[in-house]
Structure formats: structure tokens, C-alpha cells
Amino acid sequence: MTGHETRSRPSSRLPLIALAVAGVLALGSLLLPDGGTSATVPAATTQAPVAAPAAPVCSEVRESLRPTGPLPAPGAMPPGSTMAAIAARGRLIVGVDQGKYLAGYRNPITGQIEGSDIDIVDRIATAILGRPNAVQFVVLDIADRANAVRDGRVDMVVNSFTVTCARQQYVEFSSAYMTVSQRMLVPVDSGVREVEDLAGKRVCTSEGSTTEDVLRDLPLGLQVSTRAGIPDCVLDMQHGRVEAVSSDDVILAGLAAQDPQTEIVGRALDNSRYAVGMQPGQPDLVRFVNGVLEQARADGSLAASNQRWFTGHLDTIPPVAPAVYRD
């Protein structure tokens, strides 16, 4: 099992191509669904097929589940709990990104995945298993994050995962740990200052993201294209295939740090909150993670992580989101 090296302040000269790699980092064997045989279905039936129930109407974002008392000591998880099963396995399986410099990226020098999201992973792994390197990372495209949770491929997703009403049909989110804003990345000599300057032009964002919906809803006739990852959008912009890239400011900050010929511009087009995504059928794990985040808010480590990664890259450091619960 490969652990994390001690991290120093990130370099601002990491090559983009090193961050655009996708795949699975198997620090241990990836758990696969049980491969049993299915029951035989009768060949004939006299009943008409029953239509699948309609998906529940999504009306508003639900807040998360409140932590229940003090956290147990690492290695002493409640018997029968989801955390005890993770401890018995010996590793936490987490869906992450390795192409978002500053947020979640593979450091080409150390070979480790690091960033603000990975600091959250380290904290959770330490709380359950007693060490931050007891993690199996599964690298996910943005569009695959909810499916990975729903299918049980990962214990959780910590990957710039925005809380939305639609996603809550399949994912139970922790309390938010960061508030971010959607803005734009453009070439420094583009003359673009606000999104209105891009009316009728080509803008790229990540497939399956909330930023795609925001761009398509703007009454500007934007030609919106999508890619599996934002670094791919930047490559499109560098080759003149699009005029701008839109994403969350913390993601754009990492891209601008790698390419000094780009800059972040414009007002916030939307504001959203990042949280840890887990399975709805594991409320004990959700409450546990919220307890870990409560500690990180109280001891200042959440704010310190944001300062460490984004100082010098954003005019305003992303604020730590306050915890709000529904029970």
C-alpha cells in the first residue's frame, strides 16, 4: 500500500499534461460486486409489465445528518457499523480526481495524489483507521461520481462534489466543507472581462457538472461544449477550439497557476458547496464524516488547508462552509 509523502507548498510550475491522466489508482485490490447467479425468470407470463415508478420530484436541497456524540477512537469503531467494516478491510476506498491542480492532483515529483480535497480524505482515513495513508484512491471523471457512490464502487467521493437536489436522489452528502464560485478562464489577451463578452461564442466545461447547466441557461447563445475533465477544456482553448473555460474558481485557480497565459475573469455566475458524497443506506458513515468535519472546523484545519492551497492563486480564499443539519 502506498502512503502519502509529507507535503510542502505546491509548485506553480507543474505541467498540465501530467495532470490530465485518468485511471484507477489501486492501492490494494479494488472491491468488486459479488458475482452470484440470478434466479431464473419464467418464460411466460399472463400479466402486463408493470411500469417503473416515477423518479421522486426534487424540490429542494436537503441538509445533512447531525453527528451523534463524540467520535470513537481510531480502530475502535462501533461493532456492526459501516466504519467497522472499513476498518476490518484495512483501507478506505475513495473516489477522487488526479487532474485538478490544488484541489486533487497527482504530484509528478512525488507520485502522490494531493490537494485540498485530499486533505479531507486524509482526515477521514485517520479518524477511522488511525493513519492517513490507509486509502485506496479510485480516479473518477466528474460525470461518474454519483454512479460510483450508487454502485458501491467506493465508500465515498471527495472530488469537488457539489451538493444538488438531483444528486441527492442517489447520494447522501455530508455537511459542506467549502463554498466556491463559478467563473471563467480566458487567454490574457482575450479582452473578455464578463460572460456577456462571450455572447455567441464557444465555452467549454466538464460533462455532467452543474456549471454546464448554468452556462446553457444564460440568454447569451453560448456554444457550450463539454469534456470529461476541465484540463481537456483548457487544451481546447489553447488550440483555439473554444474561447473560454468555465468552472469553479478553485479549479480554475489551479489551471491558471500552470498556464500564465490565462487568467480568471468575471463575476460569480453561481455559488455552490462541496461535500463528501456517500450512500444513502449508510447514515452511520454520514454522521461519522460530519463529526470529522466538525472537528476540522473547530481546530482550524479546514481553514488552514484552504489557506495552504489557494493563497496566491485566488484573490479571496474559499470560505469554510458552516454545518447545517436536518435532524
Mean pLDDT across residues: 86
What is the chain-wise order of helices and strands? HHEEEEHEHEEEEHEHEHEEHH
- Strand residue percentage: 15-25%
Unreliable spans are 1-50
| Widest beta sheet: strand line-up | 10-9-11-8-12
Query: How many strand units?
Result: 13
Alpha-beta classification: alpha/beta
What is the rounded Rg?
21 Å
Number of continuous helical runs: 9
Helix content: 25-40%
Question: How is this fold's topology laid out?
Answer:
Layout lengths: L15 H4 L62 H8 L2 E5 L2 E2 L3 E3 L6 E2 L1 H14 L5 E5 L5 H6 L5 E2 L14 E2 L4 E10 L14 E5 L3 H8 L5 E5 L2 H9 L5 E5 H10 L3 E13 L2 E2 L4 H16 L2 H10 L17
Pfam families: SBP_bac_3
Protein name: Glutamate ABC transporter substrate-binding protein
Keywords: Signal, Transport
Please explain how this structure is put together:
The structure is a single chain. The chain is α/β, with parallel strands linked by helices and 327 residues long. The protein contains 9 helices and 13 strands. Strands 10-9-11-8-12 form a 5-stranded mixed sheet, with helices on both faces. It has a 3-stranded parallel sheet with strand order 5-1-6. A 3-stranded antiparallel sheet has the order 2-3-4. A hairpin with a 6-residue loop joins β3 and β4. α3 packs across α8. The protein starts with 15 loop residues before the first helix and ends in a 17-residue tail after the last helix.
